[in-house]
Amino acid sequence: MQMRACHSVTLQSLSPVWASRNFRQRQHRHLLPPPNAVALKARRTHSMPPEKVEVFKSMEGWASEWVLPLLKPVEQCWQPQSFVPDSSLPFDEFSEQVKALRQRTKELPDEYFVVLVGDMVTEDALPTYQTMINNLDAVRDESGTSPSPWAVWTRAWTAEENRHGDLLRTYLYLSGRVDMAIVEKTVHYLIGAGMDPGTENNPYLGFVYTSFQERATFVAHGNTARLAKEGGDPVLARICGTIAADEKRHEKAYSRIVEKLLEVDPSGAMMAIGDMMEKKITMPAHLMYDGEDPRLFEHYSAVAQRMGVYTANDYADIVEFLVGRWRLEKVEGLTAEGMRAQDFVCGLAPRIRKLQERAEERARKMNPRGFFFFTNQTPPPPPTNSHLLVASPYPPTNQPTHLARLAAFPPPNPANPRHLPPPRVAASPEPTPRPASPPPPTHPSPPPSNPPPPPPHPRPLLSPPATLFLSSHPRGHGAP
């Protein structure tokens, strides 16, 4: 097994959106195609030498003893219904539970829901992740019901993960805060697009990837739990914390596998770690798309970064954590290539942190661009096919508001209700005439020395993805 030389860390590599940028960056900014329509760079496949298959066969007994016990028996597992209103209750009781849920969520900021939807969409693309693991040589489920411990783990891991998307989707649906039709379409697109983690059907690379990714999802769900608690929704905090605990347990299993590989094949495992770190870990939802915004994952990641849910600094923390977890600095018996990979990986986290400080400084100096709340006055039509994000020219009013989506502005299509302009609010009835005011004084009033300033423009509240999935209804709208 060979690994490309690892010599540099680019500044671009510090954003959680590397993968989506790398293959779309050179496209015309205003005519970006859907992510899955862009040709990806050709990847190596089946890169593990045939003799390495025996390594995993020899580890099957160990996996049964040290990996499978990290799965929970089904009867001891939590299920989504334990966290959401019980629809089997009488209608009035069920309605009260839903109202209580909406009351808890109505004060959570819109940006929080953008991140929560992104988490849910990522979890719901589980078929893609099972497919990826089952494409790894030597550990795939050859029959669909294979008794191999690798196959047993993959099936049971999938079953445990399946609850995460189900629970988040149900909670989002009941909250009334998001447009579930857009969310569901985004999931559909993402599963159809697949993912390219760069694992080359190689279980060495695959288990390094899953170790890192499970740690990343543990961090992200843990942070959404913290933000939900701070925002006044203890139930949602418990949901996200429970999911985070699952991810932590799964991370432990995958990390054990890599640790064992370092024991039985230190150079092969070390080069695999170096290879994945040099290629950079691709986030599983990097091909996220909703039918309109080809940079949707980039926009979602920007909000996650700003809210502290998953940041470039978290990436460096995970690299540092895994270096310590696997005791990479102390691994011995390496070939020359293995030692080069060891030096690269062990020195990577400090370099990432140093470049991250520069990136954050530049980001602070950049002019913000993004989506904004609008009044329900219809804004003037933007240029055809424009992907520019603009602020409303209208001053704030006391009229009811809705969220305007500005990802792209194709010409209105009457056949598609989503392409029609938002409805105007019905005119209020004419007020009762008030008594005539007394006539003004005969002498003119002097002009004010400091005339009042003009009405301010709406303040930008959110940046790019913050209205991507949000419902057009006011917060807390209605009950079932």
TrEMBL record:
<dbReference type="InterPro" id="IPR012348">
    <property type="entry name" value="RNR-like"/>
</dbReference>
<keyword id="KW-0276">Fatty acid metabolism</keyword>
<dbReference type="InterPro" id="IPR005067">
    <property type="entry name" value="Fatty_acid_desaturase-2"/>
</dbReference>
<dbReference type="GO" id="GO:0006633">
    <property type="term" value="P:fatty acid biosynthetic process"/>
</dbReference>
<dbReference type="GO" id="GO:0046872">
    <property type="term" value="F:metal ion binding"/>
</dbReference>
<comment type="similarity">
    <text>Belongs to the fatty acid desaturase type 2 family.</text>
</comment>
<feature type="region of interest" description="Disordered">
    <location>
        <begin position="375"/>
        <end position="480"/>
    </location>
</feature>
<dbReference type="InterPro" id="IPR009078">
    <property type="entry name" value="Ferritin-like_SF"/>
</dbReference>
<keyword id="KW-0275">Fatty acid biosynthesis</keyword>
<protein>
    <recommendedName>
        <fullName>Acyl-[acyl-carrier-protein] desaturase</fullName>
    </recommendedName>
</protein>
<dbReference type="Pfam" id="PF03405">
    <property type="entry name" value="FA_desaturase_2"/>
</dbReference>
<keyword id="KW-0560">Oxidoreductase</keyword>
<keyword id="KW-0809">Transit peptide</keyword>
<dbReference type="GO" id="GO:0016491">
    <property type="term" value="F:oxidoreductase activity"/>
</dbReference>
<keyword id="KW-0444">Lipid biosynthesis</keyword>
<keyword id="KW-0150">Chloroplast</keyword>
<feature type="compositionally biased region" description="Pro residues">
    <location>
        <begin position="409"/>
        <end position="463"/>
    </location>
</feature>
<keyword id="KW-0934">Plastid</keyword>
<keyword id="KW-0443">Lipid metabolism</keyword>
<keyword id="KW-0479">Metal-binding</keyword>
<keyword id="KW-0408">Iron</keyword>
<dbReference type="GO" id="GO:0009507">
    <property type="term" value="C:chloroplast"/>
</dbReference>
